[in-house]
Amino acid sequence: MAEKLRIDKLLAHMGFGTRSEIKRAVKLGKVAVDGKVVKDSGLIVTPAQHKVTFDGETVVYRDVIYLMMNKPQGVISATEDGRERTVVDLLAPEDRLLNPFPVGRLDKDTVGLLLLTNDGGLAHELLSPRKHVDKMYEALVQGNVNEDDASAFQAGVTLDDGYVTLPAELQVLSRSLPRDSNGVIDDDGDQAAPVHSLIRLTIREGKFHQVKRMFQAVGKKVLTLKRVSMGPLKLDEYLPEGHYRELTEEEVELLKAHRGTGKQ
């Protein structure tokens, strides 16, 4: 059944003012339905069937929102905080109207893909531990990440609290030696030991600081961390850090169709 709403509630929901402001606008003849000016702010309309305009502007009604953010460093994954700047603080006022929230958390110093939505059902599907939704990260790690580490991650590593992680896929993208301020390799005479590794890691759970703790468990330190995908949703490579955009219809459908791997 198509949703029906009072016209003042619809307009307030879409950011055209408070109920009292909209009531005044209706009395001034600024609101029309299907081309006819209305005088009753309590008029019931069906957004999917009626064309509503405000001051000549067509009102596009929606009750859900899906945003992809390339989260920057220094903000926390929360809707509000008394001391810290949050990802919601980065949204334009019109994009806050439907009260989107971050799906999962990225650490304050972690960057990359963050989904914000008010679709609670979808958020539950993506976050449920039983769904085992893939989350892929790229990281710069201090230390020579090697096949032993990949094997350990595949088997599951024991974190500092005794928790054993689910199997994870670790891939080394490149290795490099540190350089001094002049760009000269500083290897302390050991040409055979790269100390920085650029890696890609896919995990299927979301424990607190998990990626950092996994590398800590094998004696290495994460220097930078970026999430590049979550389930079928991939970070838009053209989206700068600190910016966001709405998901495309195709991306929304991919997320809705995704139900995790289901592997135990």
From TrEMBL:
The keyword Ion transport does not apply. GO terms for molecular function: RNA binding; rRNA pseudouridine synthase activity. It comes from the Bacteria. SUPFAM superfamilies: Alpha-L RNA-binding motif, Pseudouridine synthase. InterPro entries: PsdUridine_s_RsuA/RluB/E/F_cat, PsdUridine_synth_cat_dom_sf, PsdUridine_synth_RsuA/RluA, PsdUridine_synth_RsuA/RluB/E/F, PsdUridine_synth_RsuA/RluB_CS, RsuA_PseudoU_synthase, S4_RNA-bd, S4_RNA-bd_sf. PANTHER family: PSEUDOURIDINE SYNTHASE, PSEUDOURIDINE SYNTHASE FAMILY PROTEIN-RELATED. GO terms for cellular component: cytosol. This is Pseudouridine synthase. Its EC number is 5.4.99.-. Pfam families: PseudoU_synth_2, S4. Residues 5-65 form the RNA-binding S4 domain. GO terms for biological process: enzyme-directed rRNA pseudouridine synthesis. Belongs to the pseudouridine synthase RsuA family.
